[in-house]
Structure formats: structure tokens, C-alpha cells
Amino acid sequence: MTTLFLILIGIIILMCIWLNNVSSRIGIPTLLAFIVLGMVFGNNGLIPLHLDDYDFAKETCTVALIFIMFYGGFGTRWESARPIVSEATLLASLGVVLTAGLTGLFCHFALRWGWEESFLLGSVVSSTDAASVFSILRSKRLGLCNNTAPLLEMESGSNDPMSYMLTALMLSILKGTASGGIIVWMLFAQITFGAGCGFVIAKYASWVLERVKIKGEGYDSLFILAVAVLSYAIPNLIGGNGYLSAYIVGIMLGNSEFPGKKALVNFFDGLTGLMQVLIFFLLGLLARPANLHSAILPALTIFVFMLLVSRPLAVSSILTPFRKYSLKQQSLISFVGLRGAASIVFAIMATVDPAPFEQDIFNIVFCIVLVSISFQGSLIPWVAKKLDMLDAGSNVMKTFNDYSEGTQMQFGSIEITPGSKWEGKMVKDLDLPGNMLIALVVREKNESPHAETRSCSQETGLFWLQRPLKTRRLS
Fold it and tell me: Residue 353 region, left (φ>0) first, then alpha (ψ -120 to 50), else beta?
């Protein structure tokens, strides 16, 4: 039985890899393919894998979200994010609250839900998905105008903690365990303990990485792995926001200099991809196609409202006072508000919680995420083009920590011999590679003070300086 189970796991992993290649080629968001694969193997699928344990799914997805949150910070390049940190922070906090509140009001007045359930649903789907945003910007190489890419990346990477806090708060209210004093203390503890623990853990981990030589190949990756887990577990144990802590540790370590960092970026890039696959595959396994028919209509209604009203209002109310974001840019930022992994985890968290509510939160969120990834995710490049927000001269890879301005330069020399195709040409007319600079021209063993205006003739030597192209990524 164990052997057959391992074979099945291997087949599923190979199919995920294949689906990743196929979806990238035909333009379908990769994560959507993983949901469909999970449904194929789900309880009512073609090859049924019975999964009814929502508690197991919650714990598994919680662990997966830790690494997604950590890498959301670790992969963000602070140099690119610094100019927009105020806007991104407001979008990740106040923007989430506004989106949740407006969506909750819509559910109550339009769908006739109870107040608590309405704001619970709004809280669950109030954050945007960093994994999907990162994936689309990278795969499509979307260079966007006016620092739009780093703003989207930092917002989507840091807004899950606020959504988690609102979800936990609404579940407490539904259970009747939240009084005024408890709510105030909960908010204080979540933010203070989460941010404080994250800062201390990141400082200690940076000190270790800079001063202690970790022996053995790959053990530095294990050290960072342990730090990521502890960055969530320690604050969570004392009532802090573990996801906020994990993000802070990630962004502080990702923008620190220490040996072996390049390999760690690649390691966590792959690990985060695996965690995304796991969450979306589990979502497909948990889905009940027979139960989706009753959830489709409210899910589509909520999705349209969020796309056209709550998300745009939240974005415009925050960015308009800065007076540097055009209506087109605000429209694009609003449209890129994809729902994804965090919404799934929080929906599962609500499902297993003993708080009483009548609505089918899980299946409604499932449909919202499915439509958001398939519809919004596929149209982002087209919308960016229609809004004239594409910048051909901008390299989106600069906003990630696995980008490098360059590596160590190489020096060399070339002798111009009689009959050479360079003989008699001006230096400015030479057909040189874009990453090569002429540093010195020696003519008859004398240095020319005007290399750029002298021609290359016999007994002339060129001393060149080669630098890597700025678009080159670390590998």
C-alpha cells in the first residue's frame, strides 16, 4: 500500500511539473492548473483521493503559508521598494480593512447575510495573493511604469497578516468571546508581539549568518528554514501575529548581505513554488463539485463587487492623497488584486473553527479564488497594455532579490593586426558587444589621451573592460 501511495505522489508531482510548462505556454495561470488537478484526484474526481479532514488541511496549509509569507519578504528588494514603502504599508493595512468592510457591507445588504458572517467573508478574501502576483510579473516580464511593480509586490507580500487578524477577530465575535477590552488587547498583541519578535529574530539570525561559519553543504539553507518556522511559531505562541513576524524576518534577511545568499534565494524560490502547489492542490482535493452550484452565484456576485467597487475604492482612497498616481495606474493596481493562497487558508481556518455561521464560506471562497486567478490572472498583461502602463525600458526583475546589477568585471586586451576588420576604424564605429567598454588604446606603445576620437591602425592594441549586462540574473 505504501509503495502504491508513493507511486501516486510521484505521478502527481510529475503532472504538476508538466502542467506548469503547459500553462505557461498557453497563457493559463499555473495555480489554476493545480486546482483542476486536485479536483481530478478529489473525492468526486476521476481518481478519488478521499480527503475530508479539514483540520489536517488547515495545519498543512498554515505551514505552507509560513514559507510563502517569509519569501514574500525575502524576495523583495528593499532598494526598489523604499520609494513606495508608505503607500504599500497603507494598502497592506488600511486597504485590507477598507476592502473587508466594503465587501462585508455588500454581503449584508445585497445578499441579506448576517452582520458577523458578512464581515467574516470580507476578512477572509480581503488580502491579495503574493504568489500569483510574483508569478505573473516574473513569467510575463511585465515592466510597469512609475514604480507600480514594487508597489504591487510589497503590498501583496505584506497584507496577509492584516487579513488573518481580521479573520481571527470575526471568528471570536461569532463565538461571543470578544469583548471591547479583549479586542483591543488582541490587536495590540498581534501587532506588537508579531513585529517585535520578527525584528529580534531577524537581527539574531543576521548576526549568526555574518559571524558563524555554518559547515556542510546545504546546512545554511536548513538554518534559514528553521528561522522561518520559528519566526511564525514564537510570536504565535504568545499571542502575536506569526505571519507578520515571518514577513518582517524575510524582508530583513533578504536585504542583508551574508555568504551563500544567492543559493538561498533559489532554494526558497523552489520551496515557495512547492508550497503553492500544495495549497492549491489541497484546495482541489477538498472541493465538492456537487456543492459548488449553490456557491457559484454569491461568489460571482461578491467577486464582481470586489473587482469593480471595494478594491478600487480602497486603492483610490489611499493613493489619491499622494498626488502622484494617475487614474490609469490606480486602475491597474486595483485590477491586480488577485485572491489566492491566503484566502484559502483563512477559509479552511473558518471552516474548522467552532464559531457558528450558516453560509458555505469554504465553497464560496473556492469559487472566488478560481474566478480571480483564471479571469484576472489571465488578463493582467492585456489590461496593463490597454491602460498604457507598460514600460519597455523597465526591468521588473530588478524588484526581486535574485537580481544582480552585475558581477566581477573581466579585463582583457586585443591586438589590432594588419588586415583586421577593425583596422582604420574609429573606436566609436567598432561593432562591440553591449557589455564591453574600451578602457585604453595604446598606439605604438603610447597611450592615447583621446581614445574615442583616434582610429585603430597597425601596431595598435585595445585594452577592454567587460561588464555583465544589467538584465542578467543570478543563477
Answer: beta
Instruction: Please give the Cα distance from 377 to 135 (Å, whole number).
Output: 10
* Grid coordinates of 18: 508538466
Other residues' Cβ atoms within 10 Å of the Cβ of residue 116: 19
- Shared domain check, 303 and 421: no
CA angle at 72 for the pair 70 and 74, rounded to the nearest 5° = 65
Flag whether 8 is in a domain: no
Can you give the pLDDT at residue 436? Answer: 67
Q: In one letter, which amino acid is 14? A: L
Contact residues for 102 (Cβ-Cβ < 8 A; gap 6+): 122, 309, 310, 313, 314
Q: How far apart are CA 150 and CA 236, in angstroms?
A: 29
Query: 274: which 3 cell numbers?
Result: 512547492
3-state secondary structure of 291: helix
Separation between Cα atoms, residue 71 and residue 130, nearest integer Å: 9
CATH of the domain at 197: 1.20.1530.20
Among 364, 399, 434, the domain-final residue is: 399
Whole-number Cα distances in Å, 276 to 71, 99, 336: 12, 24, 18
Considering the domain architecture, whether residues 320 and 462 belong to the same structural domain is answered as no
Domain membership flag for residue 275: yes
Shared-domain flag, residues 200 and 87: yes
Greatest CA separation found in the chain? 91
Domain, as residue range, for 438:
410-466
Question: Amino acid letter at 57?
Answer: A
Is this prediction's pTM over 0.85? Answer: no
- Decide if 176 is inside a domain: yes
Domain containing residue 457: CATH number = 3.30.70.1450
CB distance 126 to 100 below 8 Å: yes
310/416 same-domain check? no
H helical segments located in 1-53? 2-26, 30-40
Could you report how far apart the first and last alpha carbons of the chain are, in Å? Answer: 40
Q: Are 328 and 385 in contact, with CB atoms under 8 Å apart?
A: no
Could you give the 3-state DSSP secondary structure of residue 414? strand
Q: Is residue 200 a contact partner of residue 238, using CB atoms and an 8 Å limit?
A: no
Is there a single domain that holds both residue 239 and residue 361? yes
Q: Please report whether residue 2 resides in a domain.
A: no
Across-strand partners of 465? 411, 437
The DSSP string of 304-348 is HHIIIIIHHHHHHHHHGGGS---HHHHHHHHHT----HHHHHHHH
Burial 275-290 (b: 16+ CB within 10 A, else e): bbbbbbbbbbbbbbee
- Positions of the chain with pLDDT lower than 70, given as ranges: 1, 5, 20-31, 42-51, 139-141, 392-414, 419, 421-422, 428, 431-437, 439, 443-475
C-alpha 257, offset from chain centre:
21
